[in-house]
Amino acid sequence: MNRLTLSVIKADVGGWVGHSGVHEALLSQARESLAAAEGLLIDYHVTSCGDDLNLIMTHRHGVDAEAVHRLSWDTFVACTAVAKKLKLYGAGQDLLSDAFSGNVKGMGPGVAEMEFVERPSEPVIIFMADKTEPGAWNFPLFKIFADPFNTAGLVIDPKMHAGFRFEVHDLYEHKKITFSLPEEYYDILVLIGAAGRYTIKSVYSKTGEIASVSTTQRLNLMAGRYVGKDDPVLIVRAQSGLPAVGEILEPFAHPHIVAGWMRGSHNGPLMPVSQATATPTRFDGPPRVVALGFQLCEGRLIGPQDLFADPAFDRARSEALVLADFFRRLGPFEPHRLPLDEMEYTTMPEVMKRLEDRFEDLSD
Ligand code: F6R
Ligand code: MG
Ligand code: MG
Questions:
Q1: Which of 239, 218, 7, 217 is closest to 144 using CA atoms?
Q2: How far is it, in rounded angstroms, from Cα 66 to Cα 72?
Q3: Cα–Cα distance, 233 to 54 (Å, whole number)
Q4: CA–CA dist 108, 213 (Å, integer)
Q5: Within this chain, do residues 140 and 260 fall inside the same structural domain, yes or no?
Q6: Domain range spanning residue 327?
Q7: Active site residues
Q8: What is the pLDDT of residue 226?
Q9: 300 and 169, same structural domain?
Q10: Which residues fall within 8 angstroms of residue 243, CB to CB, at 6 or more apart?
Q11: Taking CB atoms and a 6 Å cutoff, what residues make up the pocket around ligand 1?
């Protein structure tokens, strides 16, 4: 069987204006770079969410293919040059190294890739978020693949009734564990409720079919200092024994709270938006998510359909704005500002250093 690979590789290589968007010159440079790699890719779609440039690519080379990673890296380098020329903000920000070494993982860009045999009809949704981190997908992924109150198919569709397997990564200890749901429904929640540390990397059907994969790298952990949140991507396959498009979108009908927003240091609502309005402005936010739907046809990307442009998500947006008002009123107080251990990877420890010597022991 001819297996297809769907790769989404993204990076922030320069913002317009500040950290709010991607300039058209970068998008067209990226398109030009990918078009020049004739023969390597079957198809591609270049897009953005906030200040992140997303390369959506299909090919036959499998996940972690050096040629595809090299092409992505070279594309980001070319876009960085354009960003520098226009003095865009934070040009080259996510390219943590000067030289490509075979795989973009660990070098800054975010990577979500899956390989599968294309079904007779293959609907996929690509979620892209800005001003948040990979753990932002834990809540919706749990709802999509494990919550019968969200996904009717878990109860009604005999193909889904057995449940799904979830691979969870511990980003601090660099370990992974797989849970089988619904049997381990309560166990998985012990971990994934702590979304800053444990993230759902992938979801498989009980027959071993890949259903979803996310980016899990935490750039701030990799760099040991604040270099932006990781603005994650998520791929979900839909329909025919997998959750329906509407079941996959449903968790976003009410915004959940994610870490990120201003200076990567604040909790706030994740607002579902159309691609055209994915430009976080208020307090550099609130964090946003875009959902682009494609039908795959022999690897060709038929789309996108801008799924959150639907007015059915207007209420979610209003709710997000109400929550944004609420959180903003707290200013530098938790739980708007992140807890201290999360602030370790921001610029705040430098400020705290100045106070170190002034601490005196309590007498009792
Ligand atoms: C959050 C983000 C922005 C910046 C903020 C300060 O992920 O990218 O909120 O942290 O605009 O940016 P600098 O320090 O570059 O002025
Ligand atoms: Mg940025
Ligand atoms: Mg970003």
A1: 239
A2: 10
A3: 9
A4: 18
A5: yes
A6: 118-350
A7: 12, 226, 229
A8: 64
A9: yes
A10: 144, 145, 151, 153, 160, 211, 236
A11: 18-19, 90, 131, 228-229, 262-264, 284
* Tokens matching residue 126: 């690509």
Q: How far apart are CA 100 and CA 176, in angstroms?
A: 26
**pLDDT at position 364:** 77
Structural domain count of the chain: 2
Cα–Cα distance measured from residue 63 to residue 21, given in angstroms and rounded to the nearest whole number: 28
Residue 331 domain-assigned? Answer: yes
14 CA to middle of ligand 2, Å?
7
Q: Give the chain's length.
A: 364
Ligand 1, residue 18: give the atom nearest the CA: 11
Q: Would you give the DSSP letter of residue 355?
A: T
Claim to verify: residue 241 and residue 202 sit in the same structural domain? yes
Q: Identify which ligand lies nearest to the alpha carbon of 11.
A: 3
What is the C-alpha separation between 212 and 138, in angstroms, rounded?
A: 12
Residues 243 and 319 in one domain: yes
pTM of the model: 0.97
> How far does the centroid of ligand 1 lie from the alpha carbon of residue 20, in Å?
9
> Using an 8 Å Cβ cutoff, are 226 and 263 in contact?
yes
Kindly state whether residues 192 and 277 are assigned to the same domain: yes
Q: Is residue 358 part of a domain?
A: no
Write phi, then psi, for 49 (nearest 5 degrees): -140, 120
Same domain, 132 and 145: yes
Instruction: Name the residue with the closest Cα to ligand 1, atom 12.
Output: 263
Helix (H, G, I), strand (E, B) or coil at 354: coil
Spell out the per-residue pLDDT of the chain, length 364, in tens: 689 999 999 999 999 999 999 999 999 999 999 999 989 999 999 999 999 999 999 999 999 999 999 999 999 999 999 999 999 999 999 998 878 888 888 788 999 999 999 999 999 999 999 999 999 999 999 999 999 999 999 999 999 999 999 999 998 899 999 999 999 999 999 999 999 999 999 999 999 999 999 998 777 777 777 666 689 999 999 999 999 999 999 999 999 999 999 999 999 999 999 999 999 999 999 999 999 999 999 999 999 999 999 999 999 999 999 999 999 999 999 999 999 888 877 888 888 899 999 999 998 7
Read off the CATH number of the domain in which 46 is found. 3.30.70
Q: Measured between alpha carbons, how far is 115 from 5 in angstroms, rounded to an integer? A: 4
Residue 64 CA to residue 115 CA, distance in Å, equals: 10
